[in-house]
Amino acid sequence: MKVKHWLLLLTFGLFLSVLAACSGDESKEPAGTDTKEEETGEKVLNFLNPEAIPSMDPALATDESSFIYLAATMEGLYRLDEKTQPTPGIATKHEVSPDGLTWTFTLREDAKWSNGDPVTAHDFVYSWQRAVNPDTASEYGPYMMNGVIKNAAAISKGELAVEELGVKAEGDFTLVVQLENPTPYFETLTTFGTFLPLNKNFVEEKGDSFATSSENLLANGPYTIANWSSTSDTWELVKNKDYWDTNTVKMDKLTFKVVKDPQTALDLYEEGTVDRMDLTSDLVDQYSSNDDYLVSADTFVYFLKFNQTTSDALANKNIRLALSRAFDKEGLVNEILNNGSIVANGLVPKDFTPMPETGKDFREVSGDLVKYDLEAAKEFWAKGLEELGTDSVELEFLADDDKTTKLLVEYVANQLSTNLEGLKINIKQVPKEQRLDLDSNMEYELQLSRWGPDFLDPFTFMNLWTTDSGNNWTGYSSPVYDQLVFDTASKLATDNVARYNNFLEAEKKCYLRTHQLHLFTNLLGHN
């Protein structure tokens, strides 16, 4: 894997304006960066990260930062190339049965863990079984595997033993996977962090200490992580000399430092301490003409989550409909963010996927489902208050604690409380890891969240809000919506035209209930 590709993956999912020291030879070094050679002759790049790494356990990771560093230090059956297409990783090839239900992967025999052990098919079997084991309490294991790998759903519900999962090793270097339904995009799924292998002996030896620090991790990917623990605000990625494709890894070391304040990040960049920093808001205007200014594309959709179980107000449909229309999204993206983000009026982002027959963009065909409409918002608000028998509502607004998010939530809170008479918003900002815990425990009312695609299909967005989804911590449930989405992965799995029609209908059904509100998408083009 080339470092240029890794840097692209680093910003996958987020449309960013950045400053990066310029480089004149893209064929040798990452685009937009100068390689620094230490006195030791090491090639080093220095980066910033907006938060600490929440988890380095493939089964427990749920966020962008975690999956970025898992991808840098570990390798699954396949990984994504510079065009975000699957390319061989531990698997050299695979075959699919005529009915689409059996996938047989041939693994390379020269892949090693950083302790010298070979990477085998047994490592995948153990990791995938662990991910759907209820005792592991993984969110992504059931989310990614239920309805895809045979028996995953029953196992995650405690109805079958983990050994019944549709995955087995035929020798050390052949992995056979049985699917519940034909899944044409399964190859893409195998590139995702939840499907990474694990060395069983090492994980069980470490016990509760596994994945809590550098010493309690094994790597089988391009880099190892050094000087890291679960509370670290600095760490390093060091070239893994035991990686099977180590000759294509150009950098010897990448350093990272957690910095949440944009001005502090800029100061570090200008003094030459770091080689790249993200620009936000007013800094974009200030530096957009700078020779170091670059733009990176992303497909994250940001949204407000409405927890219908912790607030009588949010359990009211008219209140949710009012909130979803009561603030100016254009003002948010153009004045507050000012980083190229665009308004999102639907779940699937613009330019993410074309319709199978016409090639038209899904977002264009589905249209704008919820737009800023102050008059309609006030009407819904009045109806909701009347139904609740009150003239006021107080809500807590949960968000991450970085400075950019602070500006964003303050803008939204001010717009909502100004435009909806009787509404009071109390902002609660916490570190990202704490927000994720509060989210999964449903201990919030309003929450600013985001989602980036796990694979290149609308299902990655649509499955978020099915009733039993491992990410649907909102109290939203619709049997009609569930069926529309589930049919795309079962009886319609091989009929792409019918699948996309279901996606269109499901997205509209979703907005009739308004269980969450999409704010904006960070997107310049499909990454």
Model description:
- The structure is a single chain.
- The strands form five sheets. A six-stranded mixed sheet has the order 16-20-15-19-17-18. The chain has a five-stranded mixed sheet with strand order 2-3-12-11-10, covered by helices on one side.
- The longest helix is centred in the C-terminal third of the chain and has 18 residues, at 496-513.
- Strand 6 and strand 7 (102-107) form a beta hairpin.
- By secondary structure, the chain is α+β, with helices and mostly antiparallel strands.
- It has helices at 3-10, 64-73, 121-132, 140-145, 152-156, 186-189, 200-206, 262-270, 282-287, 317-323, 329-337, 362-366, 374-388, 403-419, 432-440, 459-462, 479-488, 496-513; strands spanning 16-20, 36-37, 43-49, 78-80, 86-88, 91-96, 102-107, 167-169, 174-178, 223-226, 234-239, 253-258, 276-279, 293-296, 300-306, 342-343, 393-400, 423-430, 446-451, 516-522.
Short description:
With 527 residues, this protein is α+β, with helices and mostly antiparallel strands. The protein has helices at residues 3-10, 64-73, 121-132, 140-145, 152-156, 186-189, 200-206, 262-270, 282-287, 317-323, 329-337, 362-366, 374-388, 403-419, 432-440, 459-462, 479-488, 496-513, and strands at 16-20, 36-37, 43-49, 78-80, 86-88, 91-96, 102-107, 167-169, 174-178, 223-226, 234-239, 253-258, 276-279, 293-296, 300-306, 342-343, 393-400, 423-430, 446-451, 516-522.
